[in-house]
Amino acid sequence: MTITKFKENLVITGELTLMFRDFLVASVTKPFYWGRLFEQIIHLGIGSLSITVVIGFVTGLLMTLQFGYGLATFGGTLYVPGIVSVSLLRELAPIFTSLLIAGRIGSGISAEIGAMNVTQQVDAIRALGTSPMRVLVVPRMLAAIISLPLLATLSAFMGIIGGIIIAYLEFNMPMGFYVNKVLAFLHFSDVFGSMLKCSFFAVIISLLACYKGFKTTEGTKGVGEATTWVVVRASITILISDFFLSKILLLLFA
Amino acid sequence: METILEVKNLAKSFDEKEVHRDVSFSLARGETLGLLGHSGTGKSVLLRSLIGLEHIDRGQIIYRNRRIDDLTETELFPVRTKISYSFQSGALFDSVSVFENIAYPLFEHTKLSEAEVARKVRELLRIVNLEDAEDLMPSDLSGGMQKRVGLARSMALDPDILLYDEPTAGLDPMNIEKVVDLINRCRERGFSGILVTHDIPVARRVCDRLVIINEGQVHFDGSVAEFNSSDDDFVKTFLLNERAV
Ligand SMILES: Nc1ncnc2c1ncn2[C@@H]1O[C@H](COP(=O)(O)OP(=O)(O)O)[C@@H](O)[C@H]1O
Ligand SMILES: [Mg+2]
């Protein structure tokens, strides 16, 4: 049982690797569909904007509130801006945004490509002398890789704004002071590292989603199972790889 | 007559399941060939193999004196603009309009301007009797209309060979007439074609020759007249079926 599961996962990993290689090749060679890429950026990126903003803002509010009261007992309220902004930018925003996107976009892509596969539209793309990799995969993966880091950064930014507001209302901390503290604590490498992580997560989400979409062969039930598979796999992979990526980034920049 | 497509000793299995053991036949230029066989004998698999949508295990597929069965996916793209496949289900892109479905191959493979593409799409829609469907979405169409849009899309690039997968299955008599008419007009315009069908009367009306597949092999290969007068028990089951319908 476990042996067959292991073998199965080995095969999946191999196929994912090959697919990623094909994606890289197709991304830098012609024909390249700019129109489809913009379409997907609008669809994936702009479509997730409002929910990312809300999540970032609320996370910032809550973190500031909790740390504010928690650290007040030790007289550490001054450290709140730094702690909140660093943890938001380095960890919480990338993770929350990526998990959210895994649910929203990952399931969306696998359902969409899965339905196209079941109804032979993917075969039709091939039969008309074009490549599903270029027509379907490249625009979606690139859109995810471009959008996710920007969304996560925006989310962190909104969190910091939320923090400024709560710190002012609850702890009477002047807004200018908060901003100065944040700027003193954050480095460009934090933004860069966070975006790098998010690009990696975007690859995981969109690659798994496209892969599973093409593997979907049986009707609506298959499509439903595929989306669950993608969200669960992507979320676990994101959480585990985040630990190692954070470790590497700390080694590189700290 | 000049042979445009030839299948030699084709074999194809899925995992343990053998679909084709040894299939050979050829298609002459300008000819329309009927491909018959009971359901599940691998007619769709055979058509799909011809344009490389399925990889064959053994044998050769020769198009215009050139082997195409060993081409890579990318090398097959130009071949697929010359041998077009219309799917049993239509397989229309359901997120875009009828117009965009038919325009897709034109935008991909020709340098026509938008106006020229639009003119060509309207011409194709006229051929399949769907002049007014241009702006509709595939989901707005009946099954018969979807198949005809699929046919229009597969004819967009003026291919050498049209592969029709059960174009009349599931259609009402009026739509069957339209499709038969359409195939006959393609025939008159000199297209070669392979028609998979269950419908013997349709096959009689549009095919020059019939090939019957059974148990992974060609069981019968001959003219419609030879088919009608065949003594073979298996061939006769097709004639009996017809009477039953
Ligand atoms: N992708 C596939 N994987 C496994 N088996 C398949 C696949 N495609 C077709 N088959 C099998 O091949 C056989 C022939 O199918 P098909 O060509 O669709 O028959 P038909 O003659 O009715 O068109 C069927 O038994 C089908 O189950
Ligand atoms: Mg079939």
Could you describe the 3D structure shown?
With 254 residues, chain A is mainly alpha-helical. Chain A has one domain. Chain A is built from nine helices and no strands. Chain A has helices spanning 2-27, 34-45, 49-72, 80-118, 121-127, 132-171, 175-185, 188-215, 219-253. With 245 residues, chain B is an alpha/beta fold. Chain B has a single domain, classed as Rossmann fold, CATH 3.40.50. Chain B has helices at residues 43-50, 73-82, 98-109, 114-127, 143-155, 173-188, 200-206, 224-228, 233-244; strands at 3-14, 17-28, 32-36, 58-63, 66-67, 83-86, 161-165, 192-196, 209-214, 217-223. In chain B, helix 3 (98-109) crosses helix 4 (114-127), helix 3 packs parallel to helix 5 (143-155) and helix 4 (114-127) packs across helix 5 (143-155). The longest helix of chain B is centred in the C-terminal third of the chain and has 16 residues, at 173-188. The radius of gyration of chain B is 18 Å and the shape is globular. The A-B interface holds A 31, 116, 119-121, 123-124, 126-131 and B 48, 51, 53, 73-74, 76-81, 84-85, 87, 89, 91-94, 104-105, 108-109, 153-154. The complex binds adenosine-5'-diphosphate (ADP) and magnesium ion (MG). Adenosine-5'-diphosphate binds next to strand 2 and helix 1 of chain B.
